[in-house]
Write a structure and sequence with these properties.
With about 180 residues, the protein is of the alpha/beta class. About 30% of the residues lie in helices and about 15% in strands. It contains 5 helices and 6 strands. It has helices spanning about 20-30, 45-55, 70-80, 135-145, 165-179, and strands at about 5-10, 30, 60-65, 85-90, 120-125, 145-150. A 6-stranded parallel beta sheet has the order 2-1-3-4-5-6, with helices on both faces. Strand 5, helix 4 (about 135-145) and strand 6 form a beta-alpha-beta unit. Helix 2 packs across helix 3. The longest helix has 14 residues, at about 45-55. The protein is globular.
């Protein structure tokens, strides 16, 4: 697949310059779905933005989501008629937007969409993610019909995890694209 067939979907507050998503964008030329408001993520706004971007790209695309971006993929797939434009999705460190401490900032994301995704997907989890328990992440993967892959104790699988450009993630993406 060519680089603009990969769509990067950052989570809440976006992905900073040392986050693996930002490094993939800079080094590999992957497309980036820019949201209108990273600090106040409204589910309807984010779904609309993803739909707009998908309708402007050549299909098929592979989605590479992190954190709240994983919930975006699920919410978008639940209401879009454009799901056939997506070949697969790599869903990394899904955030549990229904956690009590996150509800005030992420109220529009509840209830979470947990239906089976209409395309192949892999959910990548860490055993010590502060934003989603292992049990909850496993539930997301099951609901979405996704393969579950654990990377061990890497926190939220973000810049704080010290992954650099995360070669293991690139390998997971390649495996998903080859399937």
């Amino acid at each position: 697949m060519n680089p603009d067939s990969i769509l990067i979907l950052p989570g809440w507050q976006s992905s900073g310059p040392t986050h693996w998503q930002s490094l993939w964008r800079a080094q590999l030329g992957y497309a980036w779905v820019e949201q209108h408001d990273w600090m106040r993520p409204l589910r309807g706004d984010w779904i609309t933005r993803l739909e707009d971007v998908l309708l402007q790209t050549r299909a098929p695309v592979v989605l590479v989501a992190h954190s709240l971006g994983c919930q975006l993929v699920s919410a978008w797939a639940a209401c879009s008629r454009s799901t056939g434009r997506v070949k697969a999705a790599l869903l990394v460190a899904p955030a549990d937007a229904e956690r009590e401490e996150l509800r005030p900032q992420l109220a529009s994301w509840s209830p979470l969409a947990l239906q089976r995704l209409p395309f192949p997907s892999t959910v990548v989890v860490s055993s010590n993610d502060p934003y989603c328990s292992g049990e909850r992440a496993s539930g997301f993967a099951g609901g979405w019909g996704s393969e579950l892959f654990s990377v061990g104790a890497l926190g939220h699988i973000n810049a704080d995890s010290g992954l650099g450009d995360w070669p293991q993630g690139q390998a997971l993406l390649q495996t998903l694209m080859d399937a």
